[in-house]
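Dear colleague,

Following up on Tuesday's group meeting, I ran the structure prediction for the three-component complex that the binding team flagged. I've pasted the input sequences exactly as they went in, so you can double-check that nothing got truncated or mislabelled along the way. The structure tokens for the whole assembly follow below. Feel free to forward this to whoever is handling the docking comparison.

Inputs:
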Amino acid sequence: MRLEPRTKVPFVLVILAPIAAIAASFVLCAGLVAWSGASVLEAYGLLLKGALGSGFALSETFARATPLIFTGLAAAIAFKSRFWNIGAEGQLYAGALIITVLGTGMLDLHPGLMIPILVVTSAVAGALMLLGPVLLKIHFGVDEVVTTLLLNFIVLLLVSLLLEGPLKDPMGLGWPQAEPVIEAAELPRLFQGLRLHSGLLLALLFSVIFWIVSIRTTLGYEMRAVGFNQKAARFAGMPVKRVMIITALISGGIAGIAGFSEVAGMKGNLTLDLSPGFGYTGIVVAMLAQLHPLGVIISASFVASIFVGADAMSRSAGVPSYIADVMVSVSLLCMLVSVLLVRFRIRWS
Amino acid sequence: MKRSEIDISEKQPASEVVLRLRGITKVFGSLLANDDITLELKSGEVLALLGENGAGKTTLMNILFGHYVADSGSIEVFGQSIQQGSPHAAIELGIGMVHQHFTLADNLSVLDNVMLGTEPLWSLSSNRRSGRLKLEELGERFGLQVNPNACVAELSIGERQRVEILKALYRNAQILILDEPTAVLTPQETETFFETLKKLVSGGLSLIFISHKMQEVLAISDRVAVLRDGRLVSELKTLGASETELAQAMVGRNIELPERKALIAGESVLKLKSVTVKAEEGRPALSSVSLDICVREIVGIAGVSGNGQTTVADLISGLVEPQSGTVELHGEVVNNFTPRNMLHKKVGRIPEDRHSQGVIGDMTLAENSISECYQQPQFSSYGWQNQLNRQRFAENVVSKFDVRGYSANSPVRLLSGGNMQKLILGRVLSGNPQLILANQPGRGLDVGAVAYVHEQLLAARENGAAILLISEDLEELLQIADRIAVIHRGRLSESFPRESISIAELGLLMTGQQKTPTTNNQSTEANAS
Amino acid sequence: METSFAWLEIFLNASFWVAAVRIATPLIFGTLGEVICERAGVLNLGIEGIMTIGAMVGWMAVYQGAGLWSGVLLAAVCGGVFGLLHAMLTVPLGLSQHVTGIGITLLATSLSSYVYRLILPEVSSPPRIQAFEPLEIPGLSSIPIIGEALFKQTPLTYFAFISVVVVAYVLYRTPVGLAVQMVGENPAAAEAQGLNVTIIRTGAVVCGSAFMAVGGAFLTMSAFNAFFFNMINGRGWICIALVVFASWRPGKALLGALLFAAFDAYQMRLQQLVGAEIPYQIFLMMPYVLSILALIVMSRRVGYPQALMIPYRKGER
């Protein structure tokens, strides 16, 4: 077997790749669904209905997609520069932590000022989380995968420590949770009675901004060059280290904003289960989008719909909701293969 | 080397056919790498496979050795037809191959490298004692002594080549394929190497010797097969063949040598004064290197690869800084060794490895054409890229430097080696550099592209540039350089005008021996200062 | 009672050393497995998930009535299957080892949770099984401290020690071990000697993954006797750091795992000693902080397999 690079990749194939991967994941997971005793078609029908079937379902799906757009974007930006940031989970919590400190009363400004400040500070907190790993990578050659992964655990323990100590809500009946953020810090809901909040608009805005940065600006040019061929970029006189640090900071920053959006828009306060693995799922979102900033929006919506749909399916068909995690990870692996098939032609001989 | 001394054709009557290739055809994408090649190797014979870069020699041998599978055609070894696509099958039938890029693991011992795959994979122990004995015995018999316990990383290039040959002999190879074996050797080492080959032939082996150097082919082979554009264009007895005849067959067209005007060099552009650079991983050291290059002058650095050429190139490219000594450009001492500062000081750099250093394969021609000047105001203002100017610039480079095949918006990885080099040349020359570093600019290119590169370098020289040409190809250096210096183990010899030095003398310098003092006052003075 | 030497007395307590060896066991299996994979040139970030599936499968098998050793075997087989999946994607197809590994971890972890929930939909507190009992080695176990620490352990711990010896022997003293080293150092050389790089790399990853899964199974069958979600809790990632710390050598991997476990056991006892003065989370952070420090300290050392993370595509020009 040999892989032969295609000289011309038809655009149709690029679009088709994620669709094929998702279809494959549905087919592959059918066996697992059947094992639970449910009818596969019925279960998938329930999943679809639960995700998209009503205004409420759509609101839930896009509310779930919001943090995934942020973390997906964070992964896409880093991966494009071949910087393997697997620490979006920790960066998200770092962002959530800082706005819990600032937003529960320490700062009380007009929302028009308060929210931008919180966005920036949560981004700074997330970015700082990645500063260590990127500097270690540049100066000591320490693999960032392991450092960012381990930092996730450290941050979560730190959050737990603070939630049982200084940040503990006195009204929280002993649960390790923080006080809710004040009204001025809240991200407004988009529709009356639905959980969908304006964090989504923020996520869309960042996707578009990053897309423009990537294709139109000098920084984007440098980031792509460093990602594709670091050695050649260095030879051509590009500030490789600086670009890598900037990339890492942007990536971590965007993941940090996810923490802000979840606390200020969705949950209202910081808890230990603020993120059910949004950071890790962001990697899947980024890969499904083929690291395209706008593609992230679509793939995050898809992944969110599986999660939301699976919850509904689990309630009515008795399939454990973990099926969503299985489907999402299967679609990641399928996506890797289908992207390969887009770039290469397999020759058997 | 003189032919009569090494000629072995008369010693053994070539008779029985040991290897037969029939109608081998191989296509890579749109490239016809091998076109219906039929070839025979007789017992005890040295068959030379001659051809330019890209003529299909290596592909053919890789098919023979099982790295590739031919699209059509068959191979017979000792009358047995061979299962294609399996090096294992080839080895079993007694074929051994010495690859151009050695296939050795640096962190393992010589014995490990040799014994790999010789024992049944699932045996519970490895009989290293008998392996060591056999290796030592083989080394004795063929004059290929190497310490079996040495780590490959510690060995010299010549020793590594010996290990490669021993690997094949250890497995009782009867047919040995040598892919460009002399490319990494000095002329003197090559002579010793040819002695070894003679011993191998008298030991009963049949050899296929792949080369693009005609003198070597004439010196060592019994028969020559010439490949051109994937086809076997000529097959003849070495005895009675002439260099011109072979050259004609190999190139198939007349390549005009670029015209080289006699010019008078001007003031100094680059001056290295006892520059010392510490060795690092993958980069050999430089000790007290001095060099002077003037306006309208090409200075060549010759040497066997791995002796510090990379370090000189990295220094001029701004990738490494010296520990002591000074580098002066136009009389000013350079303090800031970064690629950007070197570009700023009007140094143009043609890197050794086009794919890994020269271009960013997944970006377009246009994006690559400005990779060294993208931050200049016409391409970047307030952080935004001016795509119109970039496009115009790229189209200009593409048409001016004759980059063919793809539009400015195609990814560069699709370009052929020659066109990629033209693009790099265009990028470098568009910056009107005053000093040009050309590191192996002709490596891996076909004759036409090499001539184009030389023509451009000579034109730049005429326009007043100073050029540092690093090459392992002595002919290239003698063709276009004004002065040549030789690098050996991080030390650079004084430079000699091309007229006053011969290939043999360069060869001696490449092994570290001193050239006997000549009346070469000008350059000795320059060096003494 | 507050004595200034209490922190030192911990070391004199045999139960500390027993705990250290017990904590080390899953790390030894995981690190050993990862060493095998990386020696063959394949980074296996699926380790976290593979340990999870090993933990779940081994426990579940016993819970459903299988014997303890059958449970271990089944865990190893399941680990091997995920290793095979990782190898198929990264070796012949040459996909990014980073992303594929993360994908394997996500898949194996979620699949463990799904299957567990499917088979036990109702349980709220995880049921326990009759797990491996400590096995005293007569004579040796009566040596003070050392004897208790090394020779009063469960069979899987002995198995871990034996595995280290076997893997080291195979790697350095047999043809197949040489082949594994060679495909991790220079796959082209292995191929030129007639070896099949794809098969050797795949085999190494499958075998290494099986070890990882046994490491996971130790947790549910020899330590906690029950399966919890997220019970691997970063142990896999710590093993990745330990591989670097061990310079890719099985013997040093053993040493590294023991050293690391000793720290972990020590901090737990120190935690009891200082009580609530220092929040317990600080102590729980120590293993992760320690791993990062180990990576930094060892980062300058060379000796990693030259072809690590570089896919080999046969006949690529």
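Residues 1-14, 517-529 of chain B have pLDDT under 50 and may be disordered.

Cheers,
M.
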